[in-house]
Design goal:
The chain is about 45% helix and about 10% strand. Residues about 1-5 have low confidence and may be disordered. It contains eight helices and five strands.
Length: about 190
């Protein structure tokens, strides 16, 4: 006979905390890289459940505001943090983005969750100086707070029109497996298998 405790044991939770790149903007939810992540985890014998708390249009400030609620609601073991793109597209100061990401990471780690940071780049028309400052934030947060990260979540996708929606910003359904492949090495390393 299975005891109540054994039957109600929750699988570990991976929380995706991002913006439209992770929310599946413009595509069917079952095509999104978050759904593909759940499938890959299951196929490889992980018991983790994926919760996608990403919101299209989200900034790091919005993320910093709602991290407490997300931690309380989902008690994640791992947080995949994919925020910053909207800060860059709006020209927000890189220092503000860094402060917000640090708040999110610090609070997540204090809750006991491991954090994976997905870096992003912005179009070159924002200027070399701003682009360098913006992209440097992800490295600084990773180094200062000791979190795993990848430099560019949209690697191989961002400049390929065949992998982008008509807005030339958001990845289409064909790009979703590539997004997963870009993030997978640090996700699997963080899960330790």
């Amino acid at each position: 006979m299975i005891t109540a405790n054994a039957a109600s044991a929750e699988p570990p939770t991976i929380l995706i905390f991002g913006d439209s790149l992770s929310a599946g903007y413009g595509i069917e939810v079952d095509q999104s890289w978050a759904t593909l992540l759940q499938t890959r985890l299951s196929e490889q014998g992980y018991e983790h459940r994926v919760v996608n708390a990403s919101i299209s249009g989200e900034t790091t400030e919005g993320g910093a505001t709602r991290i407490e609620t997300a931690l309380a609601d989902f008690s994640p073991d791992v947080i995949i943090l994919e925020l910053g793109g909207n800060d860059g597209l709006r020209g927000f100061p890189a220092t503000r983005m860094k402060t917000n990401l640090e708040k999110i990471v610090t609070r997540a780690k204090a809750s006991g969750a491991a954090v994976v940071l997905l870096g992003i780049r912005i179009p070159t028309n924002y200027g070399a100086r701003y682009s360098a400052e913006f992209e440097g934030v992800f490295r600084q947060v990773s180094e200062d707070l000791g979190v795993q990260w990848i430099e560019f979540f949209m690697e191989g996708i961002a400049l390929n029109d065949e992998l982008l929606q008509d807005d030339r910003i958001h990845p289409n359904a064909l790009a979703q497996p590539m997004l997963l492949d870009n993030a997978w090495p640090i996700i699997s390393a963080t899960l330790g298998k």
